[in-house]
Design brief:
Elements lengths: L1 H19 L2 E17 L2 E21 L2 E15 L2 E5 L9 E5 L2 E8 L2 E9 L2 E21 L2 E4 L14 E12 L2 E10 L15 E12 L4
Antiparallel strand pairs: 1-2, 1-12, 2-3, 3-6, 3-7, 4-5, 6-8, 7-8, 8-9, 8-10, 10-11, 11-12
Length: 219
């Protein structure tokens, strides 16, 4: 029992210096988001502008390397072409397949888990970072043929989106006197379509964000 207490105490004492160096910060910026897909071997996209708000932690790991997780609230979306079956009606007596282009605007909770490498150039700290980005859509709307309605994430129906995305992000940042500037690029790795015909292409959500931030002083 005594040995366990001493081991636990030793672990606490070993972790405390690193924990004391953990920095917390915030950032905010504009986001340019696109829904990217391929048609006839040509890459097409539909885009929109949004924003990103995030809480950031910088946890020293080894020398110039640190773990830099974030908790981000992101406005994103875009547009892409979809096939749709036309039903037989009085105005359209011949059923068939047509093309529509819904526009999406939705909000997500993103959790980037970045490995960050920092080096100093003059008085400026330069950061290179990257890592996986889980993306959990929260709420949003879609506009189809001029009519706007809520997105039902995970419904599996036409014009809706899947309830989860995993992406990979990379970025470049600079820090001076605790103020930061960063460029973040996030590329989705999962098909966002909740439903598609066999011949339709996969759609990926991508984002590029320019942001300003600040790290709070260490206590």
């Amino acid at each position: 029992m005594k040995h366990s207490v001493w081991i636990l105490l030793g672990l606490v004492l070993a972790v405390l210096p690193a924990a004391a160096q953990v920095r917390l910060g915030v950032r905010a910026g504009g986001a340019y988001s696109t829904m990217v897909y391929k048609v006839d071997n040509l890459v097409e996209s539909g885009d929109r502008f949004g924003y990103s708000l995030a809480a950031v932690a910088d946890i020293p790991v080894w020398k110039e390397f640190s773990l830099r997780p974030e908790l981000s609230f992101v406005s994103q979306g875009g547009a892409f072409n979809q096939l749709v079956e036309w039903e037989e009606t009085s105005g359209n007596p011949d059923p068939g397949v047509g093309v529509i282009r819904p526009h999406y605007h939705y909000y997500s909770l993103q959790i980037p888990i970045n490995i960050c490498y920092t080096f100093t150039f003059s008085d400026v700290k330069v950061n290179l970072f990257g890592g996986p980005v889980p993306d959990i859509p929260l709420f949003g709307d879609k506009t189809v043929d001029g009519e706007t309605s809520d997105i039902r994430f995970g419904s599996g129906k036409e014009n809706d989106l899947k309830p989860f995305d995993i992406a990979f992000g990379i970025g470049l940042g600079a820090e001076y006197n605790r103020f930061t500037f960063g460029v973040h690029a996030i590329c989705g790795l999962t098909d966002r379509r909740a439903f598609k015909y066999n011949e339709e292409a996969r759609v990926y959500q991508n984002n590029i964000t320019l942001s300003l931030g600040y790290f709070f002083p260490l206590r």
